[in-house]
Write a structure and sequence with these properties.
CATH superfamily of the largest domain: Aldolase class I
Largest sheet: 8 strands, parallel
Radius of gyration: 20 Å
Number of strands: 8
Strand content: 5-15%
Bound molecules: flavin mononucleotide
Structural class: alpha/beta
Helix content: 40-55%
Distance between the termini: 26 Å
Shape: globular
Order of helices and strands: HEEHEHEHHEHEHEHEHHHHHH
Number of domains: 2
CATH architecture of the largest domain: Alpha-Beta Barrel
CATH topology of the largest domain: TIM Barrel
Oligomer: single chain
Length: 326
């Protein structure tokens, strides 16, 4: 997820079991072949020995976003040369800026363009590495949902993730899991259900209504970093673990800051940390309280102190002095 799930976050999310694979933030392809540094920035895992995996061994697919088949193909070849072992094509991004420049979900208005993009990338890398795609149910409406899905399969995609909303629906609930099921019934490649899976119950409903064996987690994995592990545990044992307690979340946030701090300036880490805390507050009252109390803190150490204290013992910085407010 762009601006959210970088290599550090991928590392932290995959430290507990549950994820079978993860995807990078999208690499924006316009017309030129991009230099290796762009791929390495999005996917530092490419620089390690062997196939790109998280430190705990979960495969990392590299995502491309673009509309020009030739440019996508050139960048797919570049990614392959740099060691990518999975390429995912983004046809779901709803951002106005991206759509205005003819990328992401804007291609869903014409299944032939979806086909051309997937076919070009597939031809560029052959069957050496799998090409996968991610779509929404359409741009303004769902009329072309099936045609777009079939286009990805026909052009050589080996798996399709479907976010159960149109572009115009943005992130407004509900995600239409039953629509994902209609697509699944018509395709032979695996279809993965995505959208609004926040809890074990959501996971169950999404699987039941879509009929998909696999789901993709987005915001739900940030809101509860152990959601995938809780799903896996439920599958394996039938036991429902409760939502991840604040203590575990606070430890993850502390690790996140420590890892990010080794490469990024404190002010950037501060804002990334608040961003993740803000995702967590959707599912955790303590995270919501902390976010409220700490949102104006600009000093990273004060923020970390505020996250580390027990609920009964507010840190000095939690009542922000004017000097610390933005
Ligand atoms: C901030 C943000 C950034 C995202 N970036 C990407 C991206 O780079 N590539 C992609 O395929 N989807 C991206 N998405 C969409 C998510 O992968 C997912 O399809 C969507 O959020 C619905 O799933 P969820 O309800 O589980 O979050 C992004 C979503 C958000 C909220």
């Amino acid at each position: 997820m762009e601006g959210v799930i970088d290599s550090v976050t991928r590392d932290l999310l995959t430290r507990s079991p549950g994820f079978d694979w993860v995807v990078t933030e999208f690499v924006r392809v316009v017309d030129a072949r991009l230099p290796p540094r762009v791929f390495h920035k999005h996917c530092p895992e490419l620089q390690a020995e062997g196939a790109p995996v998280t430190p705990s061994g979960v495969p990392v697919a590299l995502q491309l976003l673009g509309s020009d088949p030739e440019a996508l193909a050139a960048n797919a070849r570049q990614a392959l040369r740099l060691g990518a072992t999975g390429l995912d094509l983004n046809f779901g991004c709803p951002a106005k800026m991206v759509n205005r420049h003819d990328g992401g979900a804007s291609l869903l208005r014409d299944p032939r363009r979806v086909h051309a993009a997937v076919a070009a990338v597939h031809a560029a890398v052959g069957d050496e590495i799998p090409v996968t795609a991610k779509i929404r149910l359409g741009f303004a409406d769902r009329r072309l949902a099936l045609a777009c899905a079939l286009a990805t399969e026909d052009a050589g995609a080996r798996r399709l993730v479907v976010h159960g909303r149109t572009r115009d629906e943005g992130y407004r609930p509900p995600a239409h899991w039953e629509w994902i099921g209609r697509i699944r019934q018509r395709l032979s490649i695996p279809v993965v259900a995505n959208g609004d899976i926040w809890t074990l119950e959501d996971y169950w409903k999404a699987r039941t209504l879509s009929g998909c064996r696999d789901v993709m987690l987005g915001r739900g994995a940030l809101a509860d970093p152990r959601l995938a592990a809780r799903i896996r545990h439920w599958q394996a044992t039938g036991e429902r673990l409760p939502e991840t307690p604040w203590g575990v979340r606070a430890a993850i946030l502390a690790d996140f800051a420590a890892l990010q701090r080794s490469t990024l300036p404190d002010r950037v880490v501060t804002s990334l940390l608040k961003q993740w805390l803000s995702h967590m507050r959707q599912r955790d009252d303590e995270a919501a309280r902390r976010f409220q109390a700490l949102k104006r803190i600009t000093d990273l150490d004060t923020l970390l102190e505020g996250l580390a204290t027990t609920p009964a013992e507010p840190a000095a910085g939690m009542t922000a002095s004017p000097a610390l407010t933005v």
